[in-house]
Amino acid sequence: MSLIPKKGTVYVVDDDEAVRDSLQWLLEGKDYRVRCFESAEAFLARFDPREVACLIADIRMDGMSGMELQDRLIERQSPLPIVFITGHGDVPMAVETMKKGALDFIQKPFNEEHLLPLVERMLDKARESFAVQQEVANREALIAKLTTREAQDSSSLSAGAETDKPAISLP
Questions:
Q1: Each residue of 77-130: pLDDT tens digit?
Q2: Which SS3 state, helix, strand or coil, does residue 28 take?
Q3: How far apart, in whole angstroms, are the C-alpha atoms of residue 162 and residue 160?
Q4: 64-94 burial by CB neighbour count: b if 16+ within 10 A, else e?
Q5: Is the pTM here over 0.90, yes or no?
């Protein structure tokens, strides 16, 4: 078995140690890398936005709630896919989290037949987001290397200059 799991990283944020331990046992048994946090604050302090990962978070925790955590991640423009778990959820809460981009909202206790495909779907989404971010970063790096004149020409073409005519205007 490889030292680096093949399936990806799953962050678990829950103030209930038994839930964290159970999810860690289940997911590591399926070859996922699992990083558990007892609070949203602890997660935010150690979260690496460059990692291809997903998040399973409790909605109601001491301190910052799961919904507040989601808001913080949105503020940071994080593409991290999120699934919320709760023992005390309600429909309006579920609707609000889904409108903000959560992939699902699961009632505790949950079963592995439902959770594992959901984790895989979240990691697929994370890989796609990561690939898009890499493309954008590569494009921005190339654009940064352009000379002033090349950047102006590129702007003219982007603005709709016809390609059969010169994209630059000579004085």
A1: 888 999 999 887 778 888 888 899 898 999 888 888 889 999 999 999 988 887
A2: helix
A3: 6
A4: bbbbebbebbeeeebbbbbbbbbeebeeebb
A5: no
